[in-house]
Amino acid sequence: MLGPIERSKSEIMSKRPNTSGPSIGALARALLLLRAAAGAKWALADQIVVSGSNFLTNILLARILGIEEFGRYVLAWTIVLFVQGLQYSAVSSTMLSIGSKQEPEAARSYFGSMFVLQGIFAAASAVLTLVGAYVGDAAFPALRLDTIALPLAVAVLSSQTQDFLRRYFFSVDRLKVSFSIDAIRYMGQNIAILALIRWFPANSAAALWLVSAAAAVGSLAILPYVPSLKCSLRAILSAGLHGWHFSKWLVASTLLVFVFTNLFTFAAGIFLGAAAVGAMRAAFTLVSIANIVIEACVNVVPVRASRTFMSSGRRGLIAYLKNVTIYGTGAIAFLLGVIVVAPKFWLRLFFGPEFESYWTLVPWYAGVQVLIFLGLVIGTWYRTLESTRFIFYANVFAVILLLLIAYPLITNFGVTGAVAGLLIGQFALQAFMFMGVRLGSGLTT
To answer: Can you give the pTM of this predicted structure?
Structure first.
């Protein structure tokens, strides 16, 4: 039994701070911060490669194909991106948000099931694209869809498969592998496109074949890094049903997003011609430098948000998303500022004099990019809480608005009206979703 003096010494010693070194908790927090910083570094490097390569791809194709054929390629690639958007909403988004919550023993079965579901989706979408192209050719022979039907279907298959693999490795925190698969594909596609100059006919079909080949090579090169996974019919059905519950509103939203994102592109092609579509893509390509930040956040933010929510609840999630908004918006504004101050110069430098007269489109597209980033942050809130129905409602609102204003904007203001419509639609969408967060979640701190 301790006496008064001994007890006092014991109490003092027990209350003294540990000065021999950092606590285990502090070390753990430091390691988590270092891990997050490393993840952000690789995600940023990945998007520099992807965005930089896509930037160069559009420049090369615009110069090699000319403004008319480049516009035709853009319309074809829009179909590829539409299917890939459906795939992201139905499969990849589910994997990024739900897969990161899986316990280690369940993760192997879950990811194995997602690989099977992705294979089914990829095969079905490629076949439907091929059939749809031939049906469209019969209905609209002037579009000559039969000349691009097969390369378009192959592009749908190869592009989404490569994208799924890169996002799988992001979801399991193997960011170096994701970086590798993107480096192989996107750097390879520009090397392949240069072959258009010498060994291939300079048309949109050849461009689709070459871009598809680069995506396929990237996927094949990374297959040895996929670990041994397992699945069963029961696990596949469970993952599919959980995924459908999570993504059904996202898939519906993707359909609506495609309408309001590409409504003006196709309307411009119909009313103003393929050259207008090529000019719109050239202007958008200049501001796509912001995708370095946007797509890096797409790969990292949903996973980090889910883990933050699991560990710190809604308050932690709100704090995390606020930080993403502040730093992300600042980075995007810096990148776009360089382009917006001299859009005519950049268009002439990269795309040639025939695109220079469309410089007024660039500031409008810059505003669209900022709103797209804000939409990513707001949408992450709904996805993390697995409450995606409101995203669908917001898209319904935006599409109805754009259907009302599309025709008068394009007929009265031409291609500028088309891009202004995109800005209006994005603003309406993000404002609607943000009001839902404020009213439904108490996001006031």
So the answer is: 0.68
